[in-house]
Amino acid sequence: MNQLYKHSQTMPDKKFINSLTYRQVYTETNKLTIKLKKYIGDNNRVAIISNNSVEFAMMLLALMNLEVETLLLNSMLKNKEIKEQIDELDISVIFSSDNRYISFKEVFGTQITEPYESDITNVHIDGNMNKYKDENYESDKVLFIMNTSATTGRFKSVPITINQITSHVQASKKSLGYCPDDNWLLVLPMFHVGGLMVLLRSLYNGTAITILEKFDEDKVIYLINNNKVNMVSMVPTMLRRIIDRIEKHNLRVMLLGGEFIEDDLINKSVKLNVSIYKSYGMTETTSQVVNFNVLDNLDKLKSVGKPMEHVDIKINTDKFLEHTKDGYPAGEITIKSSMLMKGYLNKDGLSGYFCTGDIGYFDDDGFLYILDRRSNLIISGGENIYPKEIENILYNNPHVNECAVISKRDSKWGYVPVLYIVTVLSEDNIIEYLKSQLANYKIPKEIIFRESLPKNSTGKIMKKALRSCEYEDKES
Predict the structure, then answer these.
(1) Helix crossing, 54-66 with 193-205: angle to 10°?
(2) According to CATH, what is the number of the domain 162-206+214-374?
(3) Which of 99, 136, 243, 463 is most buried, with most CB under 10 Å away?
(4) Which H helix or E strand runs over 199?
(5) What PANTHER family has UniProt attached to this entry (predicted)?
């Protein structure tokens, strides 16, 4: 990568990944690139599966060197699910942090038999590295593939190109700002776009990252309270677990996305002067395309922000139209952007705006608001019910830990809302609380108490699992 080459020349001793400098990462990545070639051969597409680690990051950088298309597999997948995904994309070479496939340990331990010069100014990989010193190499080349989480159906394969990455990191730098001493705490899994882009933003910006294998409250709090990091990406479930333990910090950015952020959590962050950036994005858009600093916009707490540079968002009311209580027209959120994929692999390409499946609206100041997923919308007796609205109200109750609202067929109303919840509140308490803030037709017709709700690797509640008989059987 030209960025890694440039930084290794201009600031070789600056920290990049944990204790490793840019010089060290550049040199070791090039060695690793040579080693990987022996395993990949003529294959243009490979897969990799791992939890976060320095070795995982190095493997990703080396695979970028080789310009092979790399499928990032979720480390929580079962063998059957892995087989489905690699068969779909005709992949035969798989690298893993354990011994299930070609292990990282084996690759790192491979001896280099061809001539190799370790001086970073004179590295030879069959001449390939020269193009990384040129800004004009093929921008539409696919580097990564991510399969969307199958929470709403069969997975779809999202290609991520050099151009998408470049466009995203430039827009992100403008919206989040930049400091030469930035150190981004990486706790989101790198096999998801949110975690991967932390690595790539830092690479492009020439800043540092601190990688943790997983979200460990004690380690995260230590790094924050001791000013070891000043940036972090989280989902609200993570922040809830640590917010009361933050004593002092120099956090410049806390990027949050993926789910509702309750008022109490925002208020605690504001008191601590934590610069929360709410965001909205998806794998298809190479992570966030909308964000804003909550501290600068306390009157917009329900919003997810304004579109970033290179992002055009329109509200499509052709298939769906509803007006909010303030009179704003709501419809499906559609996106056009240089960060946007050109189409799912093995599917028709995109033309025009990408339909997100989310329902939302813009206010007069250009701030975007999300009502819910179109697929989550419950039409009960002709009335539209947004599960997210009910969930948001419940999350503002300090006695509610987790909740999710799904639909259930009903002979009288067509569909009615059903609430799954983790709380110490009684059913009567919950209904009374909701009735004080919601119309009667929005009140859940059934309340199911659980000790926990099923979540994916980023902490997002999986409603598909709640709808499945398998999950019900496990809890009964």
Answers:
(1) 70
(2) 3.40.50.12780
(3) 463
(4) helix 193-205
(5) ACYL-COA SYNTHETASE, MEDIUM-CHAIN ACYL-COA LIGASE ACSF2, MITOCHONDRIAL
How far is the CA of 364 from the CAs of 136, 327, 329, 369, 444, in angstroms?
A: 40, 11, 11, 12, 32
Taken as a whole, the chain contains a residue count of: 476
Annotated domain spans of the chain: 1-137, 162-206+214-374, 377-475
Amino acid type, 448: I
Burial 332-365 (b: 16+ CB within 10 A, else e): bbbbebbbbbebbbeeeebeebbebebbbbbeee
H or E element at residue 370:
strand 368-373
The CATH superfamily of 377-475 is ANL, C-terminal domain (3.30.300.30)
Tokens of 392: 């948001």
- Is residue 264 exposed (0-12), middle (13-18) or buried (19+ Cβ within 10 Å)? middle
Query: Is beta strand 329-337 parallel, antiparallel or unpaired with respect to 354-362?
Result: antiparallel
Handedness of CA 224, 227, 228, 229 (dihedral sign): positive
| Integer-rounded Cα radius of gyration of the chain | 23
Domain 1-137 shares a fold with domain 162-206+214-374: yes
| CB 195, CB 202: distance < 8 Å | no
Tokens of 152: 């709403």
Interatomic CA distance for residues 82 and 76, integer angstroms: 10
- What is the rounded CA–CA span in Å between residue 467 and residue 458? 20
What is the separation of C-alpha 224 from the centre of its chain, rounded to a whole number of angstroms?
21
Measure the CA–CA gap between 401 and 424, rounded to whole angstroms: 9
Phi, psi of 161 (to 5 degrees): -100, 170
Question: Which residues of 239-275 form beta strands (DSSP E)?
Answer: 253-256
Q: Give yes or no for a contact between 430 and 419, defined as CB atoms under 8 angstroms apart.
A: yes
Question: Can you give the pTM of this predicted structure?
Answer: 0.83
